[in-house]
Amino acid sequence: VPGVDFAGAAMRDVMRGEETQIFGELARTGKREGRFVLPGTHSKWVRVGGGRIVEFSTYMTGEIFAACRNHTILGRLMEESATSPAAFARGVEAGANAGHPGALLNRLFGVRTAGLFGEIPGSGLADYLSGLLIGAEIADGAAGSTEAVGIIASDELEGRYRQAAAQLGIAAEVLDSDLALAGQLAIARAAGLIAASAEGAGL
Amino acid sequence: VPGVDFAGAAMRDVMRGEETQIFGELARTGKREGRFVLPGTHSKWVRVGGGRIVEFSTYMTGEIFAACRNHTILGRLMEESATSPAAFARGVEAGANAGHPGALLNRLFGVRTAGLFGEIPGSGLADYLSGLLIGAEIADGAAGSTEAVGIIASDELEGRYRQAAAQLGIAAEVLDSDLALAGQLAIARAAGLIAASAEGAGL
User: Fold this and answer.
1) Residue B101: which of A11, A43, A95 has the nearest Cβ?
2) Which residue in A97, A144, B110, B160 has the most C-beta neighbors within 10 A?
């Protein structure tokens, strides 16, 4: 089943399975409207209307984080450590600042200088980068709507997205992230592949 | 001599030698005002007033390009080829679009989908990514001023920045990129380290 593509105003986009978690959430709650974020390597922001996905956008947040940490100068001053919520919050603020998209290329260099000038310790730089990218993603993904965003994520990402959304004044609610099976079932049922009774039997 | 740092409104920033090219340009032309871009791994946008550097910003354009091409999914569909000015121009347009900084994380994924859906051939995807990042950088770097930007770059980057600036309606002039020696001399002279006569003797 997995696979949806979408031609938005700015670019085409594609999902490869994440939509099943959305359908799972709709099936579980009976909702037919809403917006959702599925954070990850390629975060998905999804708007649902009338029980269907009406638009979505992908952000390369997780993959850019890993590429920056492991393959650019930004990783050099980073030290392994426990998470630093304060550094993360500073990153969120920097990333969410209004400006052109290109400002992100500048703010990323700020991870370097924050380390060089001792504004953030090496132990906090990875979280600063994480906050910067997640803050930038959320500020853009949530723009233009005041509707609460449903976060469907693993525990660690869930906490980061919830903290960043709260900091940016964006209403958010955390949803069950184990919705893929329910979603597959809902899709199968809609397609007439399974009877409701079979599903109830634990298929 | 090399090394300047600057505490801007959004973040601190640092140069490690690029300033000598700026001073070289000022020494060569007698200019005391202007704005300049030195494209590269870490592009520098520099504003000069009264013969001094008054502010500058770094953009990680070149390094993010390399990290994306070599260490993310975006490189997968790229094919080696001659440059594709058309793909580059489409990238510039996508990158310069107004929006939050986080929109760049979304537009980057558009390099993937442009390849997946055949909107841009594999041979043009690297140039599309290049245009996306350079367009984003220029739109942000040049924001808020109509003054012509002096481009101080290698031949290849010079062409890309000139094309992107022209496409975005930003006045730009190409300057001699081999100004570092003249800059070092100008700095040394200002510091009283060299007499004008010694300089004239070909030091």
Assistant:
1) A95
2) B110
